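Dear H.,

Thanks for agreeing to be a second pair of eyes. The structure we're designing against is below in token form, covering all 142 positions.
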């Protein structure tokens, strides 16, 4: 070669096949992001199925699980007293779940003196490290 340098399109800092590994890594990250987004969407809204009530007049109207502050998850929702009398003390028991659905902790929200037809906006949070979701397990008047 008569003293001329040959220029290559390949980056000299990458080994052969490095581009393929990089593409695989990016695809794996995208797949993980999609799975986590799907899990988060599945945990976003919970129906009242499986909730134990200790008072026929209490009704869970809705509930949501979202991100709180300081790496906490936040559980919010609304409970209505559909009865004709005030309920002295209402609690919402919440199971904190990991990504596999196993319980890793618990949370509680409570209010005193829920009047007839009143709607209580409850809020609870958990900082359990493995927390990925939550499920309301019981609404109680005790």
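And this is the sequence the design step returned. I haven't edited it by hand at all.
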């Amino acid at each position: 070669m008569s003293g001329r340098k040959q220029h290559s399109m390949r980056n000299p800092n990458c080994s052969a096949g490095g581009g393929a590994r990089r593409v695989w890594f990016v695809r794996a990250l995208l797949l993980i992001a999609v799975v986590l987004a799907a899990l988060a969407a599945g945990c976003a809204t919970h129906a009242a199925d499986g909730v134990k009530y200790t008072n026929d007049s209490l009704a869970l109207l809705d509930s949501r699980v979202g991100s709180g502050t300081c790496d906490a998850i936040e559980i919010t929702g609304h409970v209505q007293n559909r009865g004709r009398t005030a309920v002295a003390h209402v609690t919402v028991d919440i199971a904190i779940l990991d990504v596999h659905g196993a319980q890793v902790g618990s949370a509680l929200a409570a209010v005193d003196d829920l009047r007839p037809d009143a709607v209580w906006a409850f809020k609870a949070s958990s900082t359990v490290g493995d927390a990925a979701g939550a499920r309301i397990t019981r609404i109680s008047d005790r």
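Two observations from my side: The radius of gyration is 25 Å. Confidence is low (pLDDT under 50) at residues 6-15, 38-48.

Warmly,
E.
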